[in-house]
């Protein structure tokens, strides 16, 4: 049973190292099956967000010698959800949780993409300086 868990971790790690690959695979694969490019793009974003969260967490923890990466990401996402919920309640008088979760997940894609690029450059630069 241990080998199954290890295999899953290795596949996740492989896909998370270069998140553009699973994004393109899902985008073109789902787009070819359904023919709906807009839905394919949003599905690719959703899948890639999970990979980016893990990758940004590991990069953050390794660069800053910390274990706060996942907690920081969750904190930012929860604060964003609270702020969006507050705005939605003030504008419409009610809260649509599904819509807030989708918005936070999609905003997380863009935030994690930016963090991924920045942390990757910092990590590469740091490795050249110490080598």
TrEMBL record:
Which Pfam families did the record assign?
DUF3397 (PF11877)
Does the record's keyword annotation contain Transmembrane? yes
Alphabetized, the UniProt keywords read:
Membrane, Transmembrane, Transmembrane helix
The record's listing under InterPro entries reads: DUF3397
Q: Which residues cross the membrane?
A: 12-33, 70-91, 103-124
Name by which UniProt lists this protein: DUF3397 domain-containing protein
Q: Which organism is it from?
A: Paenibacillus montanisoli
Taxon lineage: Bacteria, Bacillati, Bacillota, Bacilli, Bacillales
